[in-house]
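Section 3.1 - Work completed
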Amino acid sequence: MPEVIFFEPKGPFPLNELLKDLSDRKEKIKISNIKTLDKATKNDITFFNSVDYKEHAKNTSAAACLTTSNLEQYIPKKCIKIIVKNVLLSAAQISHKFHPQAHLDYPDKSLADFHKISSKYDSVTFGKNIFIGNNVKIGSKSSLGSNVIIEHDVHLGSNCLIGSNVTIRNSLIGNEVVIQDGCKIGVKGFGFIPSKEKNFRFPHIGSVILNDNVELGANCTIDRGSIGDTIIGKNTFLDNQVHVAHNVKIGKNCMIAGQVGFAGSTTIGDNVSIGGQAGISGHLKIGNNVKIGGGSGVVKNIPDNTTVMGYPAVPLREFLKK
């Protein structure tokens, strides 16, 4: 899919200005944005707070990186290492400088009733009371129900079916995608840095990417990425009331039953099946061809071709012995 910028960054800023109150580094190079390790360019700053991402760290092209003293060894020599006490808090503070209003979702002032602009969308079927923002692209033969809001710069592919009372923002959606009634796509995730005085909201400047032939059941909530994207792979189906948190990546051909919840930054492989009301903790790696029983609580990584069940989830044979 083409690159779309939903949150235009302020700046660029001199690095020493970004680091004010965070570090005594005095480099004055210009920084254009904050991005993840794998997406950052020579003009960006990034952050590295877990050894799980060391391979991305070794290959990052970022100009500078927020990290800790025990992780700086993985960062390339050409990248300026900025040692801080709390990597995520520092990243949130810098992200806030680039995107000062992204920590909350404000109403899209570009919304216009579709009757005024419907001539732009050939062979698209519209329900009643639809509002569409600026620069929205809708593919041919798509159908939208009533009371739908599509905010600025969203891309919606061909042959898509969008139910009623759906809100879509900050999203790139492929062809033949089904989004049933009541879904909220691209909303801000539950991201904050805890503090005794006042919790610091982490700006969510990423997107949601739904690939071809994805289906979302009624009342699903898909949070956009914080720094990076939330991605659902081709031909993956979600049942009703599934919550996908920020930066989650779900692979191809997955089947997710109702009321499953995914915590932030977890990666799900291809051909994964998950039973109803299961909970998946954050920052985990769930392999390909995994089966997770209903009501399970997953708190550890799961290798390929494994079936688990229980709370905490364990291999099925072990569960059956209890």
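Second construct:
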Amino acid sequence: MTATDPHQTDAQQTNEPVETMWSSIAKSVTGLALFAIITAGLIALTQVTTADRIEQQVRKAKAKALLDIVPLSEHNNDMLNEAYSIQASELGLEEPEQAFVARQDGLPVSLIIPLVAPDGYTGPIRMLIGIDMAGQIKGVRVVEHKETPGLGDKIELQKSDWIRQFDGRSLDNTSRDQWKVKKEGGEFDQLTGATITPRAIVRAVRKALVFYRQHQSALLATKPGESFSDKAIGNP
């Protein structure tokens, strides 16, 4: 058995164990670093993949809503590629939203614009309205609301056909006095147990038709990716 050199220091005597300890720490740190890098990479990849999938689903949902208003048989362009930004107080739009042009062989046949009825029973009612070149309504669809289930929510097409009574209406075939619910002497059905909700929608839809008539040329002249604002054309 070899005797320990009494002249060696403690550090020299324990050199090998110390190196082994630091080596172990270094390996652990390296392993953790690699794990963190791999985990971060997987998270980033998942986020990118998920974001793409969500974007595709949103695009698909938008396309379905648009085609529900202007079917493929009436246009041959991709309306999502004909979108532009619109902001107009007359439409209840305080923030920019998207409008879409439907074209047949390059010529515009309908415009789908967003609008908001700010005075629903429980809050704003967000909609899309399609209007053709003659100023007739192609369709109105509610896209977001907080109306009472079982009562006001019948404005959804999935719940009833109430919203279809706007189809074919225009400022020419429906007088100003007729743009009211029947309870108030107008042409439009109210919902059982709910008058405020349909009243708000009828009022907003007529405003949209008036807005379209006043600005049809400018609305159709706005190119994809550009912005339309009623303030830019002198509206208060």
